[in-house]
Amino acid sequence: xxxxxxxxxxxxxxxxxxxxxxxxxxxxxxxxxxxxxxxxxxxxxxxxxxxxxxxxxxxxxxxxxxxxxxxxxxxxxxxxxxxxxxxxxxxxxxxxxxxxxxxxxxxxxxxxxxxxxxxxxxxxxxxxxxxxxxxxxxxxxxxxxxxxxxxxxxxxxxxxxxxxxxxxxxxxxxxxxxxxxxxxxxxxxxxxxxxxxxxxxxxxxxxxxxxxxxxxxxxxxxxxxxxxxxxxxxxxxxxxxxxxxxxxxxxxxxxxxxxxxxxxxxxxxxxxxxxxxxxxxxxxxxxxxxxxxxxxxxxxxxxxxxxxxxxxxxxxxxxxxxxxxxxxxxxxxxxxxxxxxxxxxxxxxxxxxxxxxxxxxxxxxxxxxxxxxxxxxxxxxxxxxxxxxxxxxxxxxxxxxxxxxxxxxxxxxxxxxxxxxxxxxxxxxxxxxxxxxxxxxxxxxxxxxxxxxxxxxxx
Length: 459
Hints:
The protein is an alpha/beta fold. The protein contains 15 helices and 19 strands. Helix 4 (101-110) runs parallel beside helix 5.
């Protein structure tokens, strides 16, 4: 399969999307209808029927659209047929009234993603002619950005360390003519990024801050900050093996902001984009930062370390402080930050935090329109004392383990004062069980909704 729509319709096979029990609505010859009836195809979701011609070649196909209640349990459900149908080019011939062509066509494209870096690529699968009324170029850009995020997450840390993450953003900058700067190793101390340095200094590959800028300098400033912990052992508070197995995905926040940055630049949105990624590995060595240490931050706030496995908020804090100094109109932070968020909402529904009700309303609306679910959670003020340890300004891992997603968000908010609007997204970055348009593995989460927000906010 491919992440582009087919353009040659000369051999395209007609594809009929059929609600359950509505096969009579499909324009078929008597012979074809007899064939469909013989196969017992009813239009149930997840089923399809191939109709042959006199030579046994496929001349049309019917795919099930099911019932409203069945469709309510999923999204991009049409995409499942991209992997079920035989190789060929398909053209949607007719659809039910509630068929969102943009959503379903994008889902078809996203189904073309396969992480095949270490295996022999399989042959291309079913291709789709872009449905009438859809913007093919736009959908292809979104699909590329979304699967770019997935591919970066799926790549193991052996090939996705801070050097490799830097190379990925540098390639993105080259593609779009963006400016790119790197602050690396001990230069982080000279440039006043002490917490990024502290978290990453024990690793074999030096920590760094990656900084991409693009767009008209007079345009509204939109800054994306993504957590780039390329692997997280937990540091001296070492994770157990079962918890370490998926830690290649701990740079999922950066991967998603990279994917979103691609969409913004490829669509040439009228903004001044900045992408900041603190790229580190949280490793164990003789110079690892320790429980009980007190770190100084770029903002001047001190942080008591009560768990070295709560490192993501530390590197993000320095990057957010830098972003905030520029007073962006919109500051968005994405991170695979807390297990508490997954306990609360599961892997498919990322929580987000913002104090801006207008921005929240836009995000909620965009999440529905883009079929990219997000759920607002509160910056709950009464929990502020939980992140104040007494011997430092902040505690990176409050005792007790309660409200972990909220206290982490409150921690990050302490480093943002000047942005016009700020939102933090605590994503999982992983699809544990394959679903239509979402293979098992690295996940894009929230970025299609955020693209919608940025377009509406700055149109």
